[in-house]
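=== RUN LOG ===
request id: a7f3
mode: sequence -> structure
chains: 1
length: 334
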Amino acid sequence: MFAAGVAALAVAIAIGGALGSSKADAAQKAGYKAALVSDVAGFNDNGFNKNQLKGLKQAAKKLGGTAFPIVSHSSSDYQPNYNTAVHDGAQIIIAAGFLLGPTVKQYAQQYPNTKFAITDDPVSDIGGFKNEEGITYATQEGGCLVGVLAAKMAQKMGHKVIGVAGGLKIPPVDSYIAGYKYCAAKAVKGTKTVVQYSGDFVDQSKCSAIAQNEIQGQKAQVIFQVAGLCGDGALKEASKLHKWGIGVDADEYSVASRILTSALKKTDVGVYDTILAASKGHFKGGQNLLFNLKNNGVGVGKISPKVPKSWITLMNSYKAKIISGKLKPPAVLK
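=== RESULT ===
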């Protein structure tokens, strides 16, 4: 997984037919080149990077343009991969995650005529340049909703303890956990949330060990994984120990036998919308795009049939309050 070198794959997807409302608009968008540079997990995870690749390809197809998905096997690949994207003439280069922030900042400053965007990082953290855009998600809102179900399930199972298998302790991970912890405690008073970090987004054995520790050592009844591919190990371990798991980013209902639900981050939508807007001249330089419950940028995946309808009704009441502004789950973990 962490072999040295740079693997760059250029995929050109074209469709026929008129695009846009005028010939000028069509000409502007036709041939648009967009690059997506993965983080160290590559594009073979179960959601975060994989869905961004999906959004990239869909945007290229819509525009009759060219998609450049570029894989990073380690952090040492980031700069060579950005060199590849710039020199291949990409008009917008999207970083697939928070870990690429310093690289985006460097290249945005060095190439002011190229547009740069990054998933899960605000522009204030990457220089705040006019050729940068943040693709951000209110993941604390999705975390809140799954926290309600986790708390109710833990209460039913006799121990009001829920767990988290986190990856790295970074804002995009902690925002999920903050919403989860906050709403679980609101839904069922006295609910305790235990949190551990693997320091990894790939190695499933590390997250499996966290789940085992939280379940057997701290009586957690539900494990929310916020660690990408690593976290799938936690979901499998929770099922093995006859407890429940909650997936992250994509719908992970099929990862293990006892999945309560998943907290969705629709990274395909974020990448797709960002590329289309940029191709039409609507790039919001120096600003962030925010995807949340209100615009369907985050949400909840398939819910286990073991979940009573009354719990879903309760969860949906939290959703309505968040959309209306009456409830604001925290994005910072305390």
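=== NOTES ===
The longest strand covers residues 259-265.
The longest helix spans residues 139-156.
=== END ===
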